[in-house]
Amino acid sequence: MVVSLAPFVPSQPDVVNKMLEIAQVSSDDVLFDLGCGDGRILIAAVKDFGAKKAVGYEMRRDLYKKDLEAIKSENLEGRIKVFNGNLLDADLSEATIVTLYLTTSGNNKLKPKLSEEASMGTRIVSHDFEFPGWSYTKKESFRGHTIYLYTIPDCLKKEAKPRQSFSFKGIRLFK
Description:
With 175 residues, this protein is an alpha/beta fold. The chain is 29% helix and 26% strand. It has one domain (13-155): Vaccinia Virus protein VP39 (Rossmann fold).
């Protein structure tokens, strides 16, 4: 069973553009949009910002079909790939930018995956919701929205690490 990490709420076009500006999308970038909805971020990243490639994950079949239609109508099939599946199954090793509009709890569930799979320098842009415990590189308010930029590995440095404990003769000790 797949559990949604956020309801589908489309980002407004000006917010999409601001997210991509903050991410500094260029022709060297491979953008992943996790929970890509109707594909507007994918299309804008490639068409308007010149990203080399965009990859989306969308679990809702109806939205996935809309993505395919929109990509085809823009003639971008060679540069945008969309998967109808769980974003937690995405292979993020190729990503230079990851965009999200999940909830805080959704972001929190995604943290271990991003920490393990995202490459050095990967930019993560989250619309309206933070990653608890991570340090953002930039936070910008824009027309009633907040856009957070995180950069791997800088965002991980200030994350509070749990104390490691171990037992010695039945006594719990901390490192």
